[in-house]
Amino acid sequence: MLRPLGDRIIIELVEVEEKTAFGIVLPDSAKEKPQEGNVIAVGTGFLTDSGTTVPLNVKEGDRVIYSQYAGTEVKYEGKEYLILRESDILAIIG
Amino acid sequence: MLRPLGDRIIIELVEVEEKTAFGIVLPDSAKEKPQEGNVIAVGTGFLTDSGTTVPLNVKEGDRVIYSQYAGTEVKYEGKEYLILRESDILAIIG
Amino acid sequence: MLRPLGDRIIIELVEVEEKTAFGIVLPDSAKEKPQEGNVIAVGTGFLTDSGTTVPLNVKEGDRVIYSQYAGTEVKYEGKEYLILRESDILAIIG
Amino acid sequence: MLRPLGDRIIIELVEVEEKTAFGIVLPDSAKEKPQEGNVIAVGTGFLTDSGTTVPLNVKEGDRVIYSQYAGTEVKYEGKEYLILRESDILAIIG
Amino acid sequence: MLRPLGDRIIIELVEVEEKTAFGIVLPDSAKEKPQEGNVIAVGTGFLTDSGTTVPLNVKEGDRVIYSQYAGTEVKYEGKEYLILRESDILAIIG
Amino acid sequence: MLRPLGDRIIIELVEVEEKTAFGIVLPDSAKEKPQEGNVIAVGTGFLTDSGTTVPLNVKEGDRVIYSQYAGTEVKYEGKEYLILRESDILAIIG
Amino acid sequence: MLRPLGDRIIIELVEVEEKTAFGIVLPDSAKEKPQEGNVIAVGTGFLTDSGTTVPLNVKEGDRVIYSQYAGTEVKYEGKEYLILRESDILAIIG
Fold this sequence. Notes:
Chains A, B, C, D, E, F, G: InterPro entries: Chaperonin_GroES, Chaperonin_GroES_sf, GroES-like_sf. By secondary structure, chain A is mainly β. The first copy, chain A, is 0% helix and 44% strand.
């Protein structure tokens, strides 16, 4: 299990099937990097300048859209995850 | 549905018909990027350094002018949106 | 009507007639960009780090001098405006 | 009249006559930019992060030394002034 | 013994054996730098802007994932350690 | 008299005679810039973000070591001074 | 005597004898810059944004490891010292 620190969030990347205008499914190399993912773990909160911790708005199970170049990709037990800060999450879906 | 986080705002871009001085409607490629949009969702507020949340001034339904290079474009259920921070909103129209 | 947000201010540019040392009125392309304008709308105030809003010092109707490269030019209903932050205003005239 | 905003200060530049080691008065182009000026107006004070205003230490009539590349030169009613922040003032003379 | 200061953490690097898709163990020069380590000492806490000290979340014995280019490598009594700030720790494993 | 503002300090430069390993006194052009000086005036204190003024630790008469490229050199009544911030003072001698 | 200001610390550099894998002692030019030193003086503390002074954790006599490119080297009464901020100290030894 991975436990993110502070305002960090761990995301499992979601492969979004994408069709062109003509209905052709694009192979992986031709698609732009997906910006959607499922939150699998969240940190304990954001530490403010005054030393208090503010709980995060995102929670385990949320499906989110995030900034394309945000975060760090890590590999753990054969799977790839993205660890980013909550401020890199643009919106929750649904 | 997309729910923006914190001080983020989701905007649906508005195509502004633009005529030249001679009354000719410009095709899309010749126009400069529109800076107007309709707010379709707003976050819960701006988190200050001291850990308090200040509600946003912009609300759902507002028509706004925003900084030309601000925000991130995302595609969701076939439509394109712009997600930006309230500080990138220059003015509310009307 | 345009309503600026936070510490933003909307200015209508003022064409300052300028003569050379020899009394010749310069055509527009030969003049340097004017730095004077009339304030036509002001935001609700400056949001501090601690989350309080401080009212602006500049008010509607003020004629101001501003930093030459500050702000964003926007076109609204055929007229051009400059939207900038109060901190880009150098001085009030009169 | 020009009224500077916040922690800004308006200075009238002072031409300092300067002689070389051999007693020759240098023409304007050969002198380095003067760093002295007379304060003709001061703003209402410095706005801190917590939203309080701290009065300035410099006052109208002070003769000051300032950082060489600080501030913005503006022309008003035919005279040239320098508008800069109090933090660009190095020292008060006398 | 090494005692890290403030929000710093000392990590003993862990060599992660890595196999390619074909089961071949890669020699050291062909592997990417490991991002896992064991915490062997932690500082007294993070000093906030207001002067209070917030205890760290990471503790001695934790196995952590950290940002690839974070920290400073030091050699002490023949062993190599990495000293980094807690904010460079991405997640705790387990 | 020069009165420095805020956390600024005025220093009179001290020429330190320097000998090479062979006892030869170096001419001025061959020496590195001295980093020692005598404090001749100090400002009223450091203005914090919260708007309070903290008195300086350095006082008139102190002999100090300062960062080599810090501050601004000014000429006043024929003498050269260095005006720098207290944070550029490294240590007090004696 | 040198008295460092604020959060500054004065360190006397320690020459660490270093042997290669084959037991040969390296001459000075071939060694990497040592990162160890003995603290000979500490400042009165770290001044926070709110204007309070937090005492330092490092004290006179401590042997410390510091960031390789931190601080300023000064020469005083024929000896060389390094003056750096406490935040550049990575760990205390022992």
